[in-house]
């Protein structure tokens, strides 16, 4: 029997993955910077990626409306599972 790798499991986005926010804003005579971390804790059904983008979009739009330029970043190391199976060869 020969061995082969099974297909890896798909990488799944977790709504608990923190969103890293860094923002800058010009102020009279200088500038201001902020960095913060946000995450969603949802009770009930797991939100879809699209729902999360809408929710984080509220933060993004509010900061942009106040003159901030910002970067939103997810840093995620996904766990992917693989296993070895025997083939009939």
Topology:
Layout: E1 3-5, E2 19-27, E3 30-38, H1 49-65, E4 69-74, E5 84-86
Antiparallel strand pairs: 1-5, 2-3, 2-4
Commentary on this structure:
By secondary structure, the protein is of the alpha+beta class. Helices cover 19% and strands 34% of the residues. It contains 1 helix and 5 strands; from the N terminus they run E-E-E-H-E-E. Strands 3-2-4 form a 3-stranded antiparallel β-sheet, covered by helices on one side. A hairpin with a 2-residue loop joins strand 2 and strand 3 (30-38). The longest helix is centred in the middle third of the chain and has 17 residues, at 49-65. It is elongated and about 75 Å long.
Keywords:
89 residues, alpha+beta, three-stranded antiparallel beta sheet, elongated
What structural class should be given to the helix and strand makeup?
alpha+beta
- Can you summarize the main beta sheet? 3 strands, antiparallel
> Judging from the principal axes of the Cα atoms, what is the shape?
elongated
Q: From the alpha-carbon coordinates, what is the Rg to the nearest angstrom? A: 20 Å
Which consecutive residue ranges, at least 5 long each, have pLDDT under 50? none
- Oligomeric organization of the protein chains: single chain
Spatial strand order of the main sheet: 3-2-4
């Amino acid at each position: 029997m020969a061995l082969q790798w099974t297909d890896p499991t798909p990488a799944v986005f977790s709504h608990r993955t923190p969103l890293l926010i860094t923002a800058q804003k010009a102020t009279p005579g200088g500038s201001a910077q902020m960095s913060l971390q946000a995450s969603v804790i949802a009770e009930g059904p797991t939100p879809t990626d699209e729902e999360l983008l809408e929710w984080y979009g509220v933060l993004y739009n509010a900061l942009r409306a106040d003159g901030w330029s910002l970067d939103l970043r997810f840093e995620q190391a996904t766990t992917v599972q693989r296993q070895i199976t025997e083939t009939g060869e």
